[in-house]
Fold this sequence. Notes:
- This protein is α/β, with parallel strands linked by helices.
- It has a single domain, classed as Alpha-Beta Barrel (TIM Barrel).
- It has helices at residues 31-43, 59-67, 98-112, 131-143, 157-170, 192-199, 236-240, 246-253, 256-262, 266-275, 290-296, 306-316, 326-329, and strands spanning 4-6, 13-15, 17-20, 48-50, 77-82, 117-122, 147-152, 174-177, 202-205, 280-285.
- Helix 1 links the parallel strand 3 and strand 4.
- Keywords: NADP, Oxidoreductase.
Amino acid sequence: xxxxxxxxxxxxKITEITYGNWLTHGSQVENDVATQCVxxxxxxxxTSFDTADAYANTQAERVLGDALKGQRRESLEIFTKVYWPxxxxxxxxxxxxxxxxxxxxDGSLRRLGTDYVDLYQAHRFDTETPLEETMQAFADIVxxxxxxxxxxxxxxxxxxxxxxxLAKDLGFQLISSQPQYSMLWRVIEDEVVPASRELGVSQIVxxxxxxxxxxxxxxxxxxxxxxxxxxxxxxxxxxxxxxMNDDVLTRVQGLKPVADxxxxxxxxxxxxxxxxxxxxxxxxxxxxxxxQVAENVKASGVTIPAELMARIDEVLGDVVERDxxxxxxxxxxxxxx
Length: 337
């Protein structure tokens, strides 16, 4: 079964393997398979589920809500997000304005079939809305009982500090950050993680398996496996392309002896690796087949010895991206439409 960790400086416990439905529900997999995956997660002891209003243009929330029907709500931790465009693309259909945030939480609750979410997250930082306006809207949502806790995603250390200070003034806690983090993508380690430790914020990390690259299924010089993310023209291939070069793929193959020594698959090794960071509360893991969920949860509770952590660093060498500026660099400069 899956271990629990506290989320930030709060009393909320979440499963350290959290089920996420980005790029799958409502798009890549049929709804009945998505439901099977959610039920497999529940069977494996996962109680924390992460989605967003923008995933599959709101359909992912609907699919998750349908899949969780009949479950005891108090036994679940449901997370969603707001920022990216939803709806027909009107002037206020994106961002973190009070208008969009207040309308979006109601839409998310309706689609998820619940009265509240446990964690409501700013999916990106909105450069076009005063931070005070956004945080006041979040404070009101917390007071209304529509969200119990507030988090962010892909914010810089400075943005986290500013948001945390405003939240404190407004009487609520900012408790989580959701960045990309994996053996290959470590840009949060130098600035975001130290700031988060200082503020009492935990990481819920996405793409711990680097969109499948760290499974080792992509072999240098060989065609990509049929049906894999690298062949997905709906968005998956674009997300994964930064890792799809022979140097990265060759080094990833070199991780197999480490996984073998621990009795893990390479995917399990990748998930276990992010969980060695004590500022990480959970690794987000998706699935397109129910059996993938059962495999991924075996990473829970694994301790990787220091010498093997060092060996991983040696194997990957300079293909690891560590530049903390990448968080800001990859963020939207203007509100998307």
